[in-house]
Write a structure and sequence with these properties.
The active site is at 405 (amidino-cysteine intermediate). Pfam families: ADI (PF02274). It is a single chain. By secondary structure, the protein is α/β, with parallel strands linked by helices. Helices cover 33% and strands 22% of the residues. It has helices at 2-11, 33-36, 54-72, 79-87, 90-101, 110-116, 119-128, 132-138, 185-197, 243-256, 292-297, 325-332, 346-354, 375-383; strands at residues 23-28, 75-78, 130-131, 152-154, 167-170, 173-176, 207-209, 225-229, 232-237, 261-266, 280-284, 287-290, 301-310, 313-320, 337-340, 361-364, 367-371, 387-391, 408-412. A five-stranded mixed beta sheet has the order 8-9-10-13-14, sandwiched between helices. Strands 2-1-19 form a three-stranded mixed beta sheet. The chain has a three-stranded mixed beta sheet with strand order 5-6-7. Mean pLDDT is 94; it is low at 1-5. Bound molecules: citrulline.
Length: 415
């Protein structure tokens, strides 16, 4: 009976105390029109390595979401459905459309767009973007000034299928990301709008970041936040996450009380190490999968703990550790076993890390979903007793993110 109560309480409390507890609910985004917006000329700005084939990408993504359902029984939420539900609030919709038009300087068209497109179409515009010539078909006497017909009135969000990054769930609540790269900034606005307004979630949001009153919060992205244990979280100081953001998130987490320790891990600022979860993932209470080159090159680490809360003011302590990432993990994970991508074989581990070999998605303890192309890593995982379920990855991997990057777990069994 007690267990049932606890289950009911924890099912959707939007806190996670592990990276591997049996999955119960996850948020994903089935890629759509936004992928067809990529060209050889804009792909760098939009953070893609190549121009994927949408039809095949969708088939691969469907294989992934179906595998999650079949193998774990978890509920898979689709971002598009949640988004449409919250956009029925016209004020909210107008605000998002207006913000999205800022870059093209066409904010004066926001009302027209909201009036002439259905709510579902507006959701499609906020994710897939809108070109000036498309808008002209709806609004024939449109004044777009000097802007060319083939320019974007609203830019697309092709990275939206990397649902891990626009927010992060921790033992203490939600970190809403402040995305570093301009090409991804709207993603965080969409997720925050959903979670703060959707009737299924809004009452369970405990916001850790951004801190109230910060208009332009320093950048932090969900892929840099990893739960190490019930009491500890690691945050990457990376190409995407700023040390000020780590400080503020650490302070809020420590003040909230569920988390006792927050580790800051400096990563080399390189594209292939863009987030902490590109160099390691946690697969069980004592097993991590890592990219050895990163483990060996990370030495700048710090530990935040709570000093005191006095007169409502929170004071935290920062201790510079300068320990390797493995040492940091050993502090938190007793009897740690470290498995290297491609079993450490230098001929393959660099290749497989590039296609996110270290970035597997745990659907339960020692049960992971991995890209089929990372054959040497998958073999090493199986030899370690891990159940490895493979998904096709020719197109999905062109965005440079792996199975963990593509998922936002919302509920896991407590471990
Ligand atoms: N957590 C992750 O590592 N996510 C992968 C994000 C890939 C995306 N193309 C990006 O560059 O932001």
């Amino acid at each position: 009976m007690v267990k049932l109560d606890e289950e009911a309480y924890t099912y959707m409390n939007l806190r996670l105390n592990s990276e591997f507890g049996t999955l119960r609910a996850v948020l994903m985004h089935r890629p759509g029109k936004e992928i067809d917006r990529l060209t050889p000329y804009n792909k760098e700005f939009l953070l893609f390595e190549d121009v994927p084939y949408l039809d095949a990408l969708q088939r691969e993504h469907d294989a992934f979401s179906n595998l999650i359902k079949d193998a774990s029984g978890a509920k898979v939420y689709q971002l598009r459905e949640l988004l449409i539900r919250v956009l029925y609030d016209e004020k909210m919709l107008l605000g998002l459309i207006r913000d999205s038009l800022k870059r093209s300087g066409l904010t004066h068209l926001a009302e027209d767009i909201v009036e002439r497109y259905s709510t579902a179409e507006c959701a499609g515009i906020l994710t897939g973007g809108l070109k000036v010539h498309e808008l002209k078909r709806k609004i024939p006497n449109l004044d777009a000034g000097e802007i060319m017909d083939f320019a974007f009135a609203i830019a697309p969000c092709p990275n939206l299928y990397f649902q891990r990054d626009p927010m992060a769930l921790t033992p203490g609540g939600i970190v809403f990301s402040s995305m570093k790269m301009e090409g991804r900034q709207r993603e965080a606005d969409l997720l925050r709008t959903i979670f703060e307004n959707h009737p299924e979630f809004k009452d369970n949001v405990n916001k850790i970041y951004p801190v109230n009153g910060h208009d332009n919060p320093p950048s932090i992205e969900g892929g840099d936040v990893i739960v190490l244990s019930h009491e500890a979280v690691a945050i990457g100081n990376s190409e995407r996450t700023d040390e000020k953001a780590i400080y503020h998130a650490a302070k809020a987490l420590l003040a909230e009380g569920s988390v006792q320790r927050v580790y800051e891990v400096h990563l080399p600022k390189k594209r292939q190490y863009m987030h902490l979860d590109t160099v390691f993932t946690v697969l069980d209470e004592n097993l991590v999968l890592t990219y050895p080159d990163a483990m060996n090159s990370v030495f700048q680490t710090s530990l935040y703990t709570l000093k005191e809360i006095k007169d409502d003011k929170v004071h935290i302590r920062r201790e510079v550790l300068n320990e390797s990432l493995v040492k940091v993990l050993e502090r938190e994970i007793p009897h740690l076993e470290v498995l290297a991508t491609a079993d450490g074989n230098p001929d393959y581990s660099m290749r497989e890390q590039w296609f996110d070999g270290a970035n597997v998605f745990a659907i339960g303890p020692r049960r992971v979903i991995s890209y089929n192309r990372n054959v040497h890593t998958n073999r090493a995982l199986r030899e370690m007793g891990v159940e490895v379920l493979e998904i096709p990855s020719s197109e999905l991997s062109r965005g440079l993110g792996g199975p963990r990057c593509m998922t936002m777990p919302l509920s896991r069994a407590r471990v």
